[in-house]
Amino acid sequence: MSLLVNPVPRRQPIRRGLGLLGDSFSGNCHTIAATAFGTEAYGYAGMIAARTGLFPSYPDNQGKLGDHTGQFLARLSACISSSTADLWLLLSRTNDSTTAGMSLADTKANVMKIVTAFLNTPGKYLIVGTGTPRFGSRALIGQALADAIAYKDWVLNYMSQFVPVVNIWDGFTEAMTVEGLHPNILGADFISSRVVPIITADFEFPGIPLPTDAGDIYSAIRPFGCLNANPMMLGTGGTLPAGVNAVAGSVLADGYKAVGSALTGITTRWFKEPAAYGEAQCIELGGNMALAGGYIYVQPTANVINTNLAAGDVIEMVSAV
Prior knowledge:
- Helices cover 23% and strands 17% of the residues.
- The chain is α/β, with parallel strands linked by helices and 321 residues long.
- It has 2 domains: 193 residues, Rossmann fold; 113 residues, no CATH class.
- Helix 2 runs parallel beside helix 7.
- The chain is globular, with a radius of gyration of 22 Å.
């Protein structure tokens, strides 16, 4: 008698970035520039970030309005060479359906080229999605619809041999869209709920230790310390401008400032709680948001000093939420 033992599959270690390659379905799902905020496809990348800890940085958003899969290839090298994102999502090929002269065979060849590039690059990974159905004035009919369904089946039955795949077609409804195509906040929640289990099953993210003392600042002595002062979030002297709609008595940690925009209908309460190390900065939201695209962010008041940094160094942000 022989005993065969199969080792437990090991999850792939990746950095805490998340990349997007595609069309407006990707490009508008979160910011595509330092000062631009996506307002059309409501944030599935942000929801994935909240549920996994992977951060979709704007340089890793390689989505572009109107592009078909053949045009994705021009940005493929940027995905492969990214120093911040090891895991990328290719969820949509919807513009292939409306590009004159483009066949399903063309789509498959382009996507296979992208997949092959990732397979040939150690440490880089790709999740391929089925795409979503279209509704109303954006609905597909005839051969275009048949090809979209055939692509979904090809992804699930063939591409799954090579890379993780995610089915975001089945169960996606018109109520999950802004105008029959791009996902609204319900669609973002649906998409992230399908993607997150695949990420957590197949990938892991080596932890970056949180600071444990106020002196954990980048220096020759601590070359992996923090670039921001007051990493322990101590004190109550931070700046809360009118744009964040803070209620009376709100406080923010020393050396930090908040920025808010389009928060009509929303109030915020900023307060402190004890933490294992330092203090926890808490933010409580109230009310109902009246406008799309509202946001709040917190940043150090002082600029980061880059004296000790060298070309090729990677700056990573970590927090406990």
